[in-house]
């Protein structure tokens, strides 16, 4: 059996389904570029039927990332579709421009899903799979089929459905543990059973797709690979529905660190892992927990004296991987006040950002302003500037000015001046429990967009008193989102994330909040005139 494991990354699809992880099209494109540089084999770029914006984002990725001009092998660009003609048509429209397009279609096979969600009999499910996998195959040579909730499906029924999918033209069979319920021995046995009992399975790649509800996603994925699966579906930082998906970095580094146990390889350039992790964290506003395996801030930190002593004597006493293997010990001091545009451009290229000349000019302005305040500018500072300056949602409201008064005397007060989508300026002042609270109240008074602040995280990009501060926020709107499984909307409120970076953390906080509000307004379709509160409007 071949030893190559295909890495199928679904950060832009299953990952983007995490609460608040909504990314802008520009952010999605940059993530896709980074995934391609990382060496991912298949990029699931989105769910094109979700909205025209989603379709367009997948299509752009198919065009730009699916056809590299530098001679590298293109990643397969995949679009998800329910088993309906209209979804499959939209997925095909979106991925078709890629050199290697794939349609991924799915239908649930567990009794609980068939009876209560789909209200379909086993026969109807089999018939739909035959018909829709066949339809997808009539459009695209590469078709993946997933029996949703396979982990809780009757294995005999699964063998039959999968056999029919193969007959209809499926080339990859993906086995999802949709609700993260299975235990490693059960999941390994399921994959082994599928490989033994499904007619025609030798013509297909078997794939594993695990969710982390019991914290077993990586373990289940690894046993699935040991049982013979040769594609792993993963996300960066393990983001995804509920407790998330299997983390790419965990599976790749397990295979890399224990080669004798697995004897399996991937095409991943492990030295890119930390950079891509940071990028995805910034764009999704999902902060990586410090103790997260491989990519957490503490993953390579040794605090206890006894550990430090051991490390000084021999680093393998407490370190099973070298930080440089995952790109975690990057150059610290790189640019400063006297660095020119050329030096910045060279650094951006080596960091993997595919920016055009106008974007580099825009970034250079910010870089100069930062270099005036901060002596040394690190890779992390540059990444924060790129996120803050270039990949913000289309700005409906922009910050035009901010002033705060705070301290132990008097009430914290903030005055904000915002420019609305029509170009008018609005000024509002509020008091609050602190300067950030006061500024957020003032913004709320201008933009009447009801929301709840669910999370607010401040973090210094680098050490030192002059460090750039990063803020990520998560707000909950009252508007529903689009359900993947049903045609109708889900009536759960949606969450939106925002990111801001500045040497002044109140400014960074305001930018992050505005970014989240802009994302929410765009998602709610509020592109046009927005009802304004009676604030002081400044003549232009
Ligand atoms: O978890 C799941 O079942 C999925 C399918 C769409 C593959 O994400
Ligand atoms: Zn999933």
CATH superfamily of the largest domain: Aldolase class I
Q: Structural class from helices and strands?
A: alpha/beta
Strand order of the largest sheet: 1-2-3-4-5-6-7-8
Q: Average pLDDT value?
A: 90
The first-to-last residue Cα distance is 70 Å
Instruction: Give the name of the CATH architecture of the largest domain.
Output: Alpha-Beta Barrel
Ligands and ions found: 3-methyl-2-oxobutanoic acid, zinc ion
What's the Cα radius of gyration?
Answer: 24 Å
Instruction: Tell me the fraction of residues in β-strands, as a range.
Output: 15-25%
**Low-confidence runs:** 486-490, 528-534
SS element count, helices: 17
Morphology: globular
Total of domains = 4
CATH C-level label of the largest domain: Alpha Beta
**Helix amount, in percent?**
25-40%
CATH topology of the largest domain: TIM Barrel
Extended strand count: 17
- Note the main sheet: 8 strands, parallel, barrel
Explained architecture:
- The protein has 540 residues and is an alpha/beta fold.
- It folds into four domains: 279 residues, TIM Barrel, CATH 3.20.20.70; 30 residues, no CATH class; 62 residues; 126 residues, Alpha-isopropylmalate synthase LeuA, regulatory domain (Double Stranded RNA Binding Domain), CATH 3.30.160.270.
- 39% of the residues lie in helices and 21% in strands.
- The protein has an eight-stranded parallel barrel with strand order 1-2-3-4-5-6-7-8, surrounded by eight helices.
- Helix 7 runs parallel beside helix 8.
- The termini are far apart.
- About 2% of the residues have low confidence.
- The structure holds 3-methyl-2-oxobutanoic acid and zinc ion.
- 3-methyl-2-oxobutanoic acid (KIV) binds next to strand 5 and strand 6.
């Amino acid at each position: 059996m071949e030893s190559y494991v295909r890495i199928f990354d679904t950060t832009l699809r299953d990952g983007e389904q995490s609460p608040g992880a909504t990314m802008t099209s520009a952010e999605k494109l940059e993530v896709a570029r980074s995934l391609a540089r990382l060496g991912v084999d298949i990029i699931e770029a989105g769910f094109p039927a979700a909205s025209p914006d989603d379709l367009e984002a997948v299509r752009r990725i198919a065009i730009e990332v699916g056809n590299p001009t530098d001679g590298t092998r293109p990643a397969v660009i995949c679009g998800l579709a329910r088993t309906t003609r209209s979804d499959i048509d939209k997925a095909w429209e979106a991925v078709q421009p890629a050199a290697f397009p794939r349609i991924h279609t799915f239908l649930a096979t567990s009794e609980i899903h068939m009876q209560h969600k789909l209200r379909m009999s086993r026969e109807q499910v089999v018939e739909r799979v035959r018909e829709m996998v066949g339809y997808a195959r009539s459009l695209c040579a590469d078709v993946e089929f997933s029996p949703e909730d396979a982990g809780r499906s009757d294995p005999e029924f699964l063998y039959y459905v999968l056999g029919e999918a193969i007959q209809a033209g499926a080339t990859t069979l993906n086995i999802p543990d949709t609700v993260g319920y299975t235990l490693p021995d059960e999941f390994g046995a399921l994959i082994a059973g599928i490989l033994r009992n499904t007619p025609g399975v030798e013509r297909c790649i078997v794939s594993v797709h695990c969710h982390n509800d019991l914290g077993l996603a990586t373990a289940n994925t690894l046993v699935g690979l040991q049982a013979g699966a040769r594609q792993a579906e993963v996300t960066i930082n393990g983001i995804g529905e509920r407790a998330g998906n299997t983390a790419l970095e965990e599976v790749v580094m397990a295979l890399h660190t224990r080669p004798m146990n697995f004897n399996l390889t991937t095409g991943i350039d492990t030295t890119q892992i930390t950079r891509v992790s940071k990028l995805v964290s910034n764009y999704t506003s999902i902060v990586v927990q410090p103790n997260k395996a491989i990519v957490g801030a503490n993953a390579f930190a040794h605090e206890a004296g006894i550990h430090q002593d051991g490390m000084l004597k021999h680093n393998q006493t407490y370190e099973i991987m070298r930080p440089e293997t995952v790109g975690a010990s990057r150059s610290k001091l790189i640019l400063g006040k006297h660095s020119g545009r050329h030096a910045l451009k060279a650094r951006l290229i080596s960091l993997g950002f595919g920016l055009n000349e106008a974007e580099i000019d825009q970034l250079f302005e910010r870089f100069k302003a930062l270099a005036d305040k901060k002596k040394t500018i690190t890779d992390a500072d540059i990444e924060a500037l790129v996120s803050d300056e270039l990949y913000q949602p289309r700005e409906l409201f922009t910050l035009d000015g901010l002033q705060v008064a705070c301290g132990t005397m008097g009430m914290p007060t903030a005055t904000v001046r915002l420019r609305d989508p029509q170009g008018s300026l609005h000024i509002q002042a509020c008091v609050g429990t602190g300067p950030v609270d006061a500024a957020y109240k003032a913004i709320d008074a201008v933009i009447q967009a009801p929301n709840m602040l669910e999370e607010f995280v401040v973090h210094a990009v680098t050490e030192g008193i002059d460090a750039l501060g990063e803020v990520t926020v998560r707000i909950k709107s009252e508007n529903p989102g689009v359900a993947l499984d049903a045609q109708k909307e889900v009536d759960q409120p949606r969450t939106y994330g925002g990111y801001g970076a500045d040497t002044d953390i109140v400014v960074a906080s305001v930018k992050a909040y505005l970014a989240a509000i802009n994302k929410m307004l765009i998602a709610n379709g509020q592109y046009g005139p927005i009802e304004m509160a009676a604030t002081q409007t400044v003549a232009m």
